Amino acid sequence: MRRWFFWMAMFLFAALLSAAPRADQIRTRVADGFDEPVGKPDADGYYKSRGFLSYHPGEDWNGLGGGGSDLGAPVYAIGHGYVTFARDARMGWGNVVLIRHVYMENGTLNTVDSMYAHLDRILVREGQQVTRGQQVGTIGTNRGMYVAHLHFEIRKNLYIGINRSAFPRDLVNYFKPSVFISSHRKLPGGGRSAMIVINTYNTGTITSAPTDESSMRKSPNAKPSPMKSPAAPRKDFRVNRFEDLGL
Ligand SMILES: [Zn+2]
User: Fold this and answer.
1) How many angstroms does the Cα of residue 28 sit away from the middle of ligand 1?
2) How far, in Å, from the CA of 49 to the mean position of ligand 1?
């Protein structure tokens, strides 16, 4: 009888262990929809200066005021989620925030990462739960490397992190951000939570700086842009000495 009890207790203990969340999973709120990362919720006052291209798997957002008029402007989480990265990644990235979102579509839970790069300031920390529309940072220049703008991506592949050169820049790994957002504005599952995997980035092997921003780089002799320059043509977006990085 005692032996039976012992094995029963062991079975229950093992069952409890296997049912417990793994250390590399965490619970987060299911996104009830997604908004644009600037001028929330519809990017009011902003325009896309560069879209999703074969070498540029994201979108660049600028204020309608042009030049550096959007420096320091707020950047928002596009939906509920969990901050998986919030650091200065240096090189071509600068300050980067990555947020992992889980959302319900056609009865299935899917997970994506949103990326906010070249931030002037980071206002969240890794491991933080954020809500839709919460400010996560401000628009920056990556130490003067670019005219102020937000570089924004949405990834299907949860392993990219800041190691973008290790993955094809295609629609297998990425969504076109504006297409994704406009088709996922309102989603079911609000108020629920779900498990997501975490610790999926290889932050120890950054193989190269992103080289897709050449025409956004400031000329070495560029004068500060007037605060109210017209949105187009934007003379401050000229190609310069960084062009030979291999685009
Ligand atoms: Zn960009």
Assistant:
1) 28
2) 9
Specify whether the CB–CB gap between 157 and 175 falls below 8 A: no
Q: What domain range includes position 191?
A: 22-237
Three-state secondary-structure class, residue 125: coil
Tell me, yes or no, whether 8 lies in a domain. Answer: no
10 falls within a domain: no
And the tokens for 3?
């032996």
Element (H, E) at 226: none
DSSP state of 215: G
CA 78 / ligand 1 centre spacing (Å): 17
Flag whether pLDDT at 103 surpasses 70.
yes
pTM listed for this prediction: 0.77
User: What pLDDT digit, counting tens, does each position of 41-73 carry?
Assistant: 999 999 999 999 999 999 999 999 999 999 999
- Does 194 map to a domain? yes
The DSSP output letter for 4 is: H
CB atoms < 10 A from the CB of 211, how many? 17
pLDDT at res. 234: 34
What is residue 94's three-state secondary structure? Answer: coil
